[in-house]
Recover the amino acids of this structure.
């Protein structure tokens, strides 16, 4: 039986040691092909200017830039330490001219209406204090016809997959964070209920062995 969700407040990852450890973990996921760039592109976000909410060290968005042509990326991050790290990683990719990172809160996106061709976020949904507000903000800043992708872990994954994830996560200091993220993540029915309270009208929720993905399009 799936336990109740434990609420988490959006505070971001802070501290240089924790930031560095998280960077190592995400770099490992990138190198093993475990980040969701491919799914983002398949969802229809493959051109123009995109917004990434909660980029962390930036690997998902930077890989998206590498795999698309003529695209630009803005990353909105709550943590100053992560923002600095994402900027450093963008320089390492040679993508400083195509990627910009700003500090801000996803519940009040600091952008004009109809700014972005696509919006995506991976691994931060469970941290959003008021997910309905964030989703309404996503619709606000999307251009008509723009697409969105929100991927995250899900709380009801098979215990065997959970145990495997625990063993795979490196460095080991990140394992308590994995446990916390799973406890605060959503299941499909909960996410459907959240979406029903937003301005989103065109959407789909897909489940895979370890997570779920909300995709959709803003009406013209």
């Amino acid at each position: 039986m799936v336990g109740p969700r434990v609420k988490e407040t959006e505070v971001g990852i802070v501290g240089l040691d924790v930031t560095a450890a998280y960077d190592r973990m995400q770099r490992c996921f990138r190198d093993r092909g475990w980040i969701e760039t491919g799914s983002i592109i398949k969802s229809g976000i493959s051109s123009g200017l995109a917004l990434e909410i909660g980029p962390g060290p930036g690997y998902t968005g930077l890989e998206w830039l590498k795999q698309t042509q003529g695209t630009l990326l803005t990353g909105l991050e709550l943590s100053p330490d992560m923002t600095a790290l994402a900027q450093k990683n963008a320089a390492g990719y040679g993508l400083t001219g195509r990627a910009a990172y700003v500090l801000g809160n996803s519940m009040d996106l600091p952008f004009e209406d109809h700014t972005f061709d696509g919006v995506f976020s991976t691994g931060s949904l469970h941290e959003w204090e008021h997910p309905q507000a964030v989703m309404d903000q996503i619709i606000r800043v999307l251009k008509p016809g723009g697409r969105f992708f929100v991927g995250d872990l899900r709380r009801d994954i098979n215990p065997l997959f959970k145990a495997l994830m625990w063993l795979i996560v490196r460095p080991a200091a990140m394992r308590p964070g994995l446990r916390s993220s799973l406890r605060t993540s959503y299941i499909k029915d909960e996410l459907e209920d959240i979406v029903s309270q937003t301005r989103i009208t065109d959407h789909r929720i897909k489940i895979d062995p370890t997570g779920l993905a909300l995709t959709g399009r803003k009406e013209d």
Q: What stands out?
A: The CA atoms of residues 25 and 170 lie 5 Å apart. The chain has a mean pLDDT of 92.
